[in-house]
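Per your request, structure below.
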């Protein structure tokens, strides 16, 4: 069984190939080029360096979110296109679930967080172990609300994900010595972890047709939120001004 996974959901663009429980290729890139310009050349390089071709793949996987709206769409479209071209199946990988794999042997609560801007995080919680146990579904919450939720599980807490860079000081102020943080290199989503997770999902029968592979959004994109806000303002005041 061979699976090629792409991840463009966050600041890092990643490609990995898993084969029968083994990671045979992984590459990540973080630079100023947009993911749309990086991901296809990275896929080609992965196949070349692994001495494989697209027909050798049994399925194509993508990290479907939560994350950057544009980035998630790029990864999903790439996996769908590869699968459609080869008449193969797709696999969806949750970004927060993949991040939890970074701390799977932590003796406590693994808390993957992604910066959702506007003071919010995309977050979840897992109990550490050989196979992390999900304790909280993915949610978009203000940081204090997220910390309220996870404190119910007891500590200590290991934080992973790009939300660390923005929220570490506030987390430490709230949780003190009960908070742990992965280093920058360990805190980012690893496409290799996501690819091995995709393989587990395929073995469990969690496969999709290319048409069924969709982005995972926890809230509407900003443009849609702004449109709804304008519509609400217009309904509240026929002149289109602010409500008094």
């Amino acid at each position: 069984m061979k699976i090629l996974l792409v991840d463009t959901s966050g600041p890092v663009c990643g490609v990995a190939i898993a084969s029968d429980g083994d990671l045979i290729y992984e590459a990540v890139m973080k630079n100023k080029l947009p993911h749309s310009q990086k991901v296809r050349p990275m896929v080609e390089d992965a196949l070349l360096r692994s001495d494989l071709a697209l027909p050798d793949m049994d399925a194509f996987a993508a990290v479907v979110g939560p994350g950057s709206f544009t980035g998630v769409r790029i990864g999903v479209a790439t996996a769908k296109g590869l699968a459609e071209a080869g008449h193969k199946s797709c696999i969806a990988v949750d970004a927060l679930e993949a991040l939890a794999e970074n701390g799977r042997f932590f003796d406590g609560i693994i808390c993957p967080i992604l910066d959702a801007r506007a003071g919010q995080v995309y977050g979840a919680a897992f109990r550490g172990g050989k196979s992390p146990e999900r304790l909280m579904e993915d949610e978009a919450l203000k940081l204090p609300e997220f910390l309220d939720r996870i404190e119910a599980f007891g500590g200590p807490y290991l934080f992973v994900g790009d939300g660390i860079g923005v929220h570490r000081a506030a987390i430490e102020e709230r949780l003190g010595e009960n908070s742990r943080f992965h280093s920058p290199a360990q805190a980012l989503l690893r496409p290799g972890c996501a690819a091995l997770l995709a393989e587990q999902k395929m073995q469990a029968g969690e496969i999709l047709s290319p048409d069924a592979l969709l982005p995972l959004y926890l809230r509407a994109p900003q443009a849609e939120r702004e449109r709804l806000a304008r519509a609400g303002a217009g309904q509240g005041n026929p002149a289109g001004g602010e409500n008094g």
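Helices lie at 35-49, 69-86, 95-100, 143-151, 163-175, 184-187, 191-203, 222-236.

Regards,
D.
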